[in-house]
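pipeline/complex-builder :: batch 7 item 3
reading input block
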Amino acid sequence: AQKVTQAQTEISVVEKEDVTLDCVYETRDTTYYLFWYKQPPSGELVFLIRRNSFDEQNEISGRYSWNFQKSTSSFNFTITASQVVDSAVYFCALSEAGRDDKIIFGKGTRLHILP
Amino acid sequence: DGGITQSPKYLFRKEGQNVTLSCEQNLNHDAMYWYRQDPGQGLRLIYYSQIVNDFQKGDIAEGYSVSREKKESFPLTVTSAQKNPTAFYLCASSPAEGLAGIADTQYFGPGTRLTVL
């Protein structure tokens, strides 16, 4: 069965600090996709990244970076030089390709960036 | 602008009443989804549809119903059979290009917060 665990329920850091959000997943499939979404206070989920199981290269997008390690079934997300606008709930998610595009979400990590 | 709209943003209903939440998309996406989010919880799938006039139950379909008469629209009805309907409801869509072994990205609307009094 597929499962996504975000062990950090809530994190608070001071602005300009770096912060890493952890994500551990479980799946029996060899082909799967991992996602990160951001949910700001407005409520809408904003897509950040999609990564397939065959691409283990780390990805960097501005202040955001993602570390995918199949050996530990983790897909961690790091924000460098955090800003108050980064305050949100962040969800990690997993989709097993071919399963009607259904996505399983973790319970989310609420990130507070303190000014 | 292309996107997904949900209306209304806030909805209040009396217990025992059915209520319909609207979801419209102009992204020309084939697939649409409804999720429920409770405080401190992740998203749980209620129903999804990959093509017009067809839909499937998700993990928590009891007490809900949907229709997919048009590609752009996927309304969700919360019926009186739903025991605890107060929640935040999110609609999503994806291209569902049908490529084998590919999982499409889902894009979300702004959500509707339903409160049953």
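note: Chain A touches chain B at residues 4, 9, 31-33, 35, 37, 42-47, 50, 52, 91, 95-103, 105-108 (CB under 8 Å).
queue -> next item
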